[in-house]
Amino acid sequence: MSGEREITIRESSKTSPRVKTSPxxxxxxxxxxxxxxxxxxxENLLILLHGLGDTHLPFSKLGRSLRLPxxxxxxxxxxxxxxxxxEEAYQWYTSFDNLGELLERPNPTPALExxxxxxxxxxxxxxxxxHRIHLFGFAQGGSVAAEFALRYWRTANSPPQKSSVSPxxxxxxxxxxxxxxxxxxVSGPLLSYPTVQKPCPTPLLIFHRPRPADxxxxxxxxxxxxxxxxxxxEVKMKGDGMPRSREExxxxxxxxxxxxxxxxxxxxxxxxxxxxxxxx
Length: 280
What we know:
- This protein is α/β, with parallel strands linked by helices.
- The chain is built from five helices and nine strands.
């Protein structure tokens, strides 16, 4: 990798308050953990979605350890408990048949409806602009993140009478305002081949493992993502599961440095550069 570091300056949301209202448990129908930005400026929100059989608690810790500049974090727990397990293990949608085998074609609709409620609350009640909301998901959580970004793009750009997504700032009509800020999916493919007339402009990074990793994706997974999204960054590294080392986190941190917003301080725009990877 070259020694050059890409840096960008991204304009902050002019009408968005510096400190956002915390999400309410009465409006989000699953347990969650929210942490405001360490530096006191809530310019971005990173929503973290865990994988199959996990809970939101490890991802809450992960979000805080990232220490992304001007970025609050929200870790959500999946809504369904996996049946026949006597432990805290959850799924975003029904994943197994009556014999305990993984479904080949699961239906993510319940998870997408949950995400719609969450983002609707964040936009309407907590003053988060949609393009400042970023998603990070692992495996099943990554699939939900990618599927929801597509759904949000399609719904928000449908005719007003059909749209169930809260509109962003009515003074802005740019495509960016009607799409989420970014998606990072770790080993989480789309669950269906996207059929969109116009690809979603939300930048997406897909981090995945080659076979024989347990978390390896189908061979056509990246092709499907490139069909649905305008900008797809692919990172493929040997191993299994979540990124673990500084080397594995580096492309994800670089991706965030290019797409997270930065609010100006004292009338000046700060340069957004690569943040330090989390401690692993």
